[in-house]
Amino acid sequence: MRVAMGQINPLIGDFRGNIEKMSRMVDLAKTKGCDLIIFPELSFIGYPPLDLLDRPAFVEESIRWWDALERMSEGIGLIAGAVSKNEAKEGKCYHNSLLFFQNGRLIALVNKRLLPFYDVFDEERYFEPGKEPGYAEWRGVRLGLTICEDIWNRDGILPRRYYPCDPVVDLKTIGVDVLINIAASPYYHGKMKNVMIPLLKSVAREVNAPVVFVNQVGGNDELIFQGRSMVCLPYGDIVVQARSFEEDLVVFNTANLMGDFRDAHDDDVDEVIDALCLGLRDYMRKCGFDRAVIGMSGGVDSAVTACIAAMSIGREKVMGVGLPGPYSSKESLEDAYEVARRLGIDWAVIPITGLYEAVVSSMAEVFSGLSPDVTEENVQARLRGLVLMAISNKLGRLLLSTGNKSELAVGYCTLYGDMNGGLAVLGDVPKTFVYAIARRLKEKFGWIPERVITKPPSAELRPNQRDQDTLPPYELLDAVLELYLEENKSLREIVSLGYDEATVHEIIRMVERNEYKRRQAPPVLKVTTKAFGIGRRIPIAHGYKPGHSGGHSS
């Protein structure tokens, strides 16, 4: 049996456009002599649809498109993900389902049994879990049919077994020749290598059968989907593999388990660059933008953001703007221009010193008797944000925020200033990793001058300012932030690893007191296990103080 895996990049809710993508892949699969084609989870709906599922008309319209899938299945088996109605009198209204069509007829409907509720997932909000194992016999082949999370209830994969049942064990008991898993599994760096492939190997060993993993690809808001659909054998070999971060159709034969194999690099830096490019490109395309503008300070963050933008949408569609202020160095403006020149993007310089002096002068009476402080620094940042948003409005360019995860974590950024923008491209990239990306881009393309990478980072909002005047060294800061934000370590646990208690306490204090800023930040492209935004929900107003011992004092 020849099987095709249709790795598509859907636009959420664009039923017609997504069905047309699927139809083109079905036609191609037929020309390749395929008997079956498999598409990802919620194939023509797109994942995650979120509260669009609360609109009955949205679900009703999606179900009407099943007819198109039926027509597509003439002469080929077709597996796709969809939303179906829960016909029971109790429970949620809908199921997350797998549909199996053959020759214009629905021959199997399987409901997702395990509904994830952690990090970026909230499927229990919308769906009722399925109760029965997904199984179908087709052309003499016993197929196990699962949807994404259904294979994740394994020891060593999640922090604990979250669910009372294990669909994989149930299918092992039934006995299957092939286990199919349609998925929309969001990306973070290292996930494929460190989690997904070990998971697939574990499942294949458990059922003693090949696992066919068909994953969504593309960017949907903050989430990026890697694709890299694959077939894993019981003894651990990956014998079929689709491209990462691209739509693809790969074909294999179940008789000898031979098929298409696209190489995939497992280098973390290159992988994150590719992910950011896909996330930015799709965010702009799916939101209706085709051009971008970036405030370029001469620092490493804006340089990397400009490079990612040029790689994603084309250098001819990117504009860099230098915004020198009263404390900007000549070298910084030179560095910003040099990056723009090497990239070949549009370039403009709009000084803000006159604007700044006008604002300070107009506030002189109100601020009488008060010494300059961070207020005046923030005025500069907000004036830059004002100018950049004016360019965005007038020229129809999406403003890209250039701040990194380290700054966003501790609030080293200005509301309505450098936080302005439609998307925070580096908002989930720690500063130390930004430097790694910069070095890789310099090595491969020569776009970033050495001085941009080696000079001490500075916001240049006061004389002789350096980031390390306010923050710990970024190597230390990022290490503590990873332990606190991604691994959920407590102050005591972090200190027990050898970190200075006062430093850790101050970092945690800065993180906790700046939640209000992060709530007002642009969407952040998720590339780590825990990003700010949809997958991290912390109250702005709360009284819990991490690191303070409990109990009563005498």
TrEMBL record:
InterPro entries given in the database record: C-N_Hydrolase, C-N_Hydrolase_sf, Gln-dep_NAD_synthase, NAD/GMP_synthase, NAD_synthase, Rossmann-like_a/b/a_fold
GO CC annotation: cytoplasm
Positions that bind ATP: G295, M296, S297, G298, G299, V300, D301, S302, T402
Keyword NAD part of the UniProt annotation: yes
Amino acids binding L-glutamine: Y118, S185, K191
Statement: the UniProt record of this protein carries the keyword ATP-binding: yes
Function: Catalyzes the ATP-dependent amidation of deamido-NAD to form NAD. Uses L-glutamine as a nitrogen source.
Protein name, as recorded: Glutamine-dependent NAD(+) synthetase
Name of the encoding gene: nadE
